[in-house]
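Example complex used in Figure S2.
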Amino acid sequence: MPNISEVAKRAKVSRTTVSRVLNEKEDVSEETRRRVMAAIKDMNYRPSALARSLVRQKTDTIGVILSDITDPFFSRIVQGVEDVAHKFDYGTVYASMRWDPKLKHNYINFLRNGRVDGLLMMGHTVGNEDYLREMVEENFPLVLVEYWIEKLHTSFISIDNGGGGYLATKHLLDLGHRRIAHLAGHRKARVSAERLEGYRRALGDFGIPFAEELVVYSDFTTEDAIPAAKKLLTLSVRPTAIFAGNDLMAYGVIHAARELCIEVPRDLALVGFDDIELASMVTPALTTVHQPRLEIGSMAAWTLIQQIENKEIQPTTTELKTSLVVRESCGAGVCKGFGIGLKVEK
Amino acid sequence: MPNISEVAKRAKVSRTTVSRVLNEKEDVSEETRRRVMAAIKDMNYRPSALARSLVRQKTDTIGVILSDITDPFFSRIVQGVEDVAHKFDYGTVYASMRWDPKLKHNYINFLRNGRVDGLLMMGHTVGNEDYLREMVEENFPLVLVEYWIEKLHTSFISIDNGGGGYLATKHLLDLGHRRIAHLAGHRKARVSAERLEGYRRALGDFGIPFAEELVVYSDFTTEDAIPAAKKLLTLSVRPTAIFAGNDLMAYGVIHAARELCIEVPRDLALVGFDDIELASMVTPALTTVHQPRLEIGSMAAWTLIQQIENKEIQPTTTELKTSLVVRESCGAGVCKGFGIGLKVEK
DNA sequence: CTCATTACTGGGATCGATTCCGAAAAAGAC
DNA sequence: GTCTTTTTCGGAATCGATCCCAGTAATGAG
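Predicted assembly (692 residues):
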């Protein structure tokens, strides 16, 4: 691999001039520029990003740490992140912490040591978060997406989980359900508490007392949701509707229900949360709370880049609105057309 | 952010000694080691990966380029990659090319310029692949996963797609189906051709003539598969079974079928390919061809690391076996237990 | 023709680590 | 006590770029 000096020698100019051509500076004559370009092409030269970043103290890269890289929930968020990042000439690299706090810690260190200019963390909180405080104290650009940490002086992007929970529950109440269970997500995740709050608020508005037994927790995965859902479906007085903490968990409910010969939506109404792509694809199509994920992603990237390029900027907290997408799983019947849901804005 | 010299000054030693402590070299006395460690902790020092990589000409990082970062197909593959990579003390970074050839090109350049020691490419081929040849010529470590390029002197990891197609089709034939359609994946992808070949071979073995009209192509997505599936389901003589190019496309078939009031498996038998996690979760649980994805991932990472650490090594081609997982979508009835498929080894 | 101004170009320091080689100090041999 | 060997440490070069500052050539003004 040739370096900048060899290119310079070949083009019979100095390193400095090659660098100028590379960075499209103006003060280089057309003729030398052509010579340099030719040398670059001839030698198949590609500048070392490493050396460049080292001297400039800037990598033009943002790191994205996800709880699980293949969670469909992140799909469009990532798209939003990339769109904005590329617009500002930033590259993106991803790391998946796969729910393993140690892995997460490794990754953060891995990326922080000069590999990226800032970090975007998204997903659910697990384990000790002290190193996040450390990062913030050291003024390392950090934006958290749906990843709430108490009293952390940094930017947050989140959605109105409480409102979403309210929408979902109210929809079920409007359909006449009175015994509505909630299969909540990870007990320690803030989003779980918020969605639960929305659920309680809706019940309250309809004068229905909150029943402890109707709320069960599980992880945000289908596998984990199955036994939890079974617990709800085998209560002495079975709920007629369930509001699940996310779409994947809603599939767990369907799964569990089928094993008990309960059919959705015939015997059980079901609402999910997230509106992942698959929600409209599988049978029954899921009624669910929609998150503006493209916006979440672009907002997050934008916020982070602002923070990188202007370290003095104050952290911001952004909350995006949710909406309800009515499909089949509540038997609401509003939507015969398969998959194309009636979108009810909040 | 302190650098190694400042740490050295504080510990009253030279940079060299600090570096030795950092890299756990043996020739440093216990006492100075302690002093250095203390200084490191006091100053909250973290070595710059950039500077280290620059001088060592090694990043200890492998790049993974995926066609779509959130395709559930990659989930366990990525897990396999990470397990092996971490075992060998490599970090991993991901980039998603999102089917955009230009984006892909950008990413490859982005990662190649000294950011990673080698590249793992997985997913389906789109666009011009000349730069891949260029990489190989320059002896840049590269391993392709299910990403076949003609006459490229580099390592490949793939699965026995032909065998998988055969298994899927034979299963349908064994169940008595005689008019079996194939909803093939991306026309230009090699995997499509291979799976199609398996389909034809199985038909041949049962003495059934191949009918052009029974094969339709679409992208590897649910959305794209829907119209294609409709084409098959509205043939004058409707097929009684469909072998779909992957699981997501199989969902497209279910989707299309429902719109036409055709129910799977009652009116139509269906086999997918990949065995993504969701295949066992949704209704009906999908009978599908299983790929050993964890092994694919670990194999790929292992092969790449071998190539990085020993540039003289010859490229290898690995083909892993597939197996059939029988669930509900063929109405085979072997499996009442929901989701837990009878695994028929090839 | 001389001097001032502008347009290009190059030298050398720098970013933050590693590594080779040699030097000093300590330990051991006789 | 002297010489050799081992242990421990430091100096200087290096990786491959960028950038400040200064120097040269070309151009224009008078």
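The first strand of chain B starts at residue 61 and ends at 66. The mean pLDDT of chain B is 89.
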